[in-house]
């Protein structure tokens, strides 16, 4: 099993990157936030990996943060949730938001992800609710169902995923409603105080 790779990024696309370590190029699948936060070609990077052995080869699913890898591994303990689906969820909303959704038992929000229906979302909440309490997630965040739409809108406007995530995390928990949260996120990203 490959736990992490450190090396030079020799190629990068939206959903994958090739990291060369000791003369060997490893193609690593990336999702959302990880693809956006990985440095440009020529830079040195470290990614944490899930190694998936399939009948047609080995696939590496990469994460720029170790805690995202841990969350993905937790999701994969649920029957029917493979590495690609788990990476897609974690890469889209991030570990903090996902933990908040599970803690607050918001299975309907999880059911919106490709490969996750209502039954599987209910199982994720039920089976992981106690397990995530053992994870070191730092500050507890409040889950807002409209944040997925806010992230998509800000991404479409050209903002970096890292800036979007930081703005949503820094936002006051009293800011409610998708429109108000979008306005607050724009102010935070552009450097104004909420």
Topology:
Layout (H helix, E strand, L loop, with lengths): L3 E9 L3 E6 L2 E6 L2 H6 L6 E11 L2 E7 L2 H10 L7 H11 L1 H9 L3 H4 L7 H11 L18 H10 L4 H10 L7 H12 L5
Parallel strand pairs: 3-5
Antiparallel strand pairs: 1-2, 1-4, 2-3, 4-5
What are the defining features of this structure?
five-stranded mixed beta barrel, 194 residues, 3 domains, 43% helix, globular, alpha+beta, single chain
Mean pLDDT: 85
Q: How large is the count of helical segments?
A: 9
Q: What is the number of E strands?
A: 5
What is the CATH architecture annotation of the largest domain? Orthogonal Bundle
- What's the level 1 CATH class of the largest domain? Mainly Alpha
Strand order of the largest sheet: 1-2-3-5-4
Distance between the termini: 45 Å
Alpha-beta classification: alpha+beta
CATH topology of the largest domain, by name, is: DNA polymerase, domain 1
Number of domains: 3
CATH superfamily of the largest domain: 5' to 3' exonuclease, C-terminal subdomain
The proportion of strand residues reads: 15-25%
Explain how this protein is built:
There is one protein chain. The chain is an alpha+beta fold and 194 residues long. The chain has nine helices and five strands, in the order E-E-E-H-E-E-H-H-H-H-H-H-H-H. The protein has a five-stranded mixed β-barrel with strand order 1-2-3-5-4. A hairpin with a 2-residue loop joins strand 4 (44-54) and strand 5 (57-63). Helix 3 (83-93) packs across helix 4 (95-103), helix 7 runs antiparallel to helix 8 and helix 8 (161-170) crosses helix 9. It starts with a strand and ends in a 5-residue tail after the last helix. The relative contact order is 0.11. GO terms for molecular function: ATP binding; four-way junction DNA binding; four-way junction helicase activity. It is found in: Cytoplasm. Residues 1-64 are annotated as: Domain I. Keywords: ATP-binding, Cytoplasm, DNA damage, DNA recombination, DNA repair, DNA-binding, Helicase, Hydrolase, Nucleotide-binding.
